[in-house]
Design goal:
The complex is a heterodimer of chains A (390) and B (229). Chain A is of the alpha+beta class. Chain A has eleven helices and twelve strands. Chain A is elongated and about 100 Å long. By secondary structure, chain B is an alpha/beta fold. In chain B, strand 9 and strand 10 form a beta hairpin. The radius of gyration of chain B is 17 Å and the shape is globular. The chains are: A alpha+beta (390), B alpha/beta (229). Chains A and B meet through helix 2 and helix 9 of A and helix 1, helix 2 and helix 3 of B.
Chain lengths: 390, 229
């Protein structure tokens, strides 16, 4: 009798992954308490990471909404400007130079600054006042929910943020208020235009310039629209040559500048820290839960080894469990955070959760769970098959 | 004379080193032939479970040789042992060690699936074995819903799945009452004889000694003549 005939039939190793996957899922759902505990870790990390990132992206969106909605391809700003808080005004000469540059369809100035509105009860509230020319309305307003933008053609007319009407003193269409010492009439309302600071208010260029006390030969920014088909980089280069005492941004570059400024500033550190904290806490919960599950079932793992399963087989089992925990926990977490974002969405606070964040969360949680499972794997590696006889 | 399926020659096993070293086996010679039903008996700490573990390729001897058929299995590397266990050995454990999250059929099919059997084929053989041990109506019952005797019968079916030439059992009746223990051991012997399996059973249970073809007595790490009962 040959040796091979004496052995029991080994029909291959092809089904091992499927077998370990079946075992992984059965073991997961058999111990409901561990399943719930581990999922809570993933759900916690998913919700907190997405809530923090969503709020952070919401705040970034508030800070870049002016750049994104102003309708300009290029922004001419004071030198060393990184955000919309530009510092010293620039000369109106800049506007003339921009208008005569090749490839420029139009150029318009805007004034931008903080004004104080007096409330009827004696209090005062700041607003971020934007003044733009009516010809192109570069710089707003947009998202009007009451009134008409044409009202800005009338002297001393200002459009305010609808969601802040009470806070700004019970504003209504036609209300008369004092804005930084100027008498103004409420000509309309926008919705959701609140940057990370005082809400936006819009006026004609001249009205805003008077209110903000900006000299006639100066302006805050100049917005430039390129002619269709014109090369933006070329226009930017020409403007930089003509206007050495300014900074020229393409729209996306200015947007990115604001974003990076905020990320580098305390806002990014604060949100980054809490996001990292969420990931670490989730990692610890998942790692301990999976480790605990292995410890609780160590005899079963020993039995599997005694029967002929290898450490690699059991690593596959843990890998499938880790990915399953990640998928289930992330799906539940994203459902919760989506519902949460719908619940808390307001002009003051919004969670921006683009699809990329959702996909990234699945990837992040998969990596988190697989890494967390290494602690359990270390325990599985150390299981001796001989322990089943003790 | 039947072919020797399992042999140990001069096997020693020492746990620990130095002052705390403990010699569990002190040069054991052992043989079992195809179809033989051998019981290993001895007091606690005598080394019988250590010998079973070494013959089951789950523990390496300190010295000596262990062969399964003509294949020298002692001295093999750790990673070479799982395929040997799969190829030659079925295990029955004291606490049955069934996978709690799997039903009876999946528990019995498990070693077959590890050997690469397709699901349908593994399930068919598992169902036939469970039918044979009298659990044909409990295929989908998880271990928690079976009695101690039923669980041990599932463990017997699992050990026999794939017809491994050697069955090693560690105190298979320890957790069972006398009647159930007797029934389970009789079933194991009957099925092993039908399949031509070599069975080595470690036991303290003198109520089942009469079922053995041969009783090997171990004391203090040595095989000694069996005491008169």
């Amino acid at each position: 009798m040959s040796l091979s005939a004496k052995r029991t039939a080994i029909k291959g190793r092809g089904g091992r992954t499927r077998l370990m996957s079946l075992l992984a899922i059965r073991m997961m759902f058999h111990d409901r308490a561990k399943l719930i505990g581990t999922l809570l870790g993933v759900v916690f990390a998913t919700v907190l990471v997405n809530q923090q990132l969503g709020v952070f992206l919401g705040l970034l969106g508030k800070n870049t909404m002016m750049v994104d909605n102003a309708g300009a391809d290029l922004w001419i700003v004071p030198p060393s400007t990184q955000t919309l808080q530009g510092g010293s005004p620039i000369s109106i000469y800049t506007l003339n130079q921009a208008r005569v540059t090749d490839g420029v369809a139009w150029a318009e100035p805007i004034v931008y600054g903080t004004a104080i509105i007096q409330r009827p009860d004696g209090g005062a509230e700041p607003v971020t006042l934007v003044g733009s020319r009516l010809s192109h309305l570069a710089g707003g307003p947009w998202n009007l929910v009451a009134g008409d933008v044409s009202a800005l053609a009338y002297p001393d007319t200002v459009i305010f943020e609808d969601s802040q009407r009470q806070k700004l003193g019970g504003l209504n269409l036609g209300s008369v208020r004092e804005l930084s010492g100027h008498r103004v009439i409420v000509g309309g309302f926008t919705w959701g235009l609140i940057p990370f600071g005082p809400p936006y208010a819009f006026a004609s260029y001249e009205t805003a310039r008077d209110i903000l006390h900006i000299a006639e030969d100066q302006t805050t920014f100049v917005l430039v629209r390129a002619s269709p088909g014109a090369d933006l980089a070329s226009i930017q280069h020409d403007l930089e040559a003509r206007l050495p005492n300014t900074r020229i941004y393409q729209r996306q570059d200015f947007h990115d500048s604001i974003v990076w400024y905020l990320i580098r500033a305390q806002l990014g550190i604060s949100f980054g820290t809490s996001t990292a904290f969420a990931v670490i806490v989730g990692f610890v919960i998942v790692a301990l839960s999976m480790f605990s599950a292995v410890v609780d079932n160590v005899r079963e793992f020993g039995t599997l080894k005694a029967m002929g399963a290898t450490t690699f087989d059991l690593a596959r089992l843990l890998f499938v469990q880790a990915l399953s925990y990640a998928f289930l926990g992330t799906t539940i977490g994203l459902f919760l955070v989506t519902r949460m974002s719908e619940g808390i969405r307001s002009p003051n606070l919004s969670l921006i959760l683009p699809p990329e964040i959702f996909l990234g969360t699945y990837g992040l949680m998969a990596v988190l769970c697989v890494l967390a499972s290494t602690l359990a794997l270390a325990r599985v590696r150390s299981v001796e098959p001989g322990m089943v006889f003790r | 004379m039947s072919e020797v399926t399992l042999s140990a020659k001069g096997v020693t096993k020492t746990y620990g080193t130095g002052a705390v070293a403990f010699q569990a086996l002190r040069g054991v010679d052992f043989e079992a032939s195809a179809g033989e039903f051998v019981m290993l008996n001895g007091p606690s700490g005598s080394g019988k479970t250590t010998l079973l573990s070494i013959m089951g390729c789950v523990l390496s001897p300190t010295s000596g040789e262990v062969r399964i058929f003509d294949e020298l299995v002692s001295g093999k590397k750790e990673r070479q042992l799982p395929p040997l266990r799969l190829a030659y050995i079925g295990f029955i454990f004291q606490g049955n060690n069934l996978i709690q999250s799997l039903d009876a059929r999946d528990n019995v099919a498990l070693p077959l699936r590890l050997r690469g059997y397709p699901v349908r084929e593994a399930n068919a053989e598992a169902e036939a074995l469970l039918e044979r041990v009298g659990l044909g109506d409990k295929l989908e019952r998880p271990p928690a819903e079976l009695s101690g005797g039923q669980r041990q019968r599932v463990a017997i079916a699992r050990a026999l799945a794939g017809r491994p030439p050697i069955i090693l059992a560690d105190e298979p009746t320890a957790a069972l009452d006398a009647e159930t223990g007797m029934t389970v051991t009789e079933l194991l012997k009957e099925m092993a004889r039908e399949g031509g399996h070599t069975v080595v059973v470690v036991t303290h249970d003198n109520r089942i000694f009469h079922l053995a073809d041969r009783i090997v007595h171990i004391e203090d790490g040595h095989i000694v003549p069996a005491p008169a009962h």
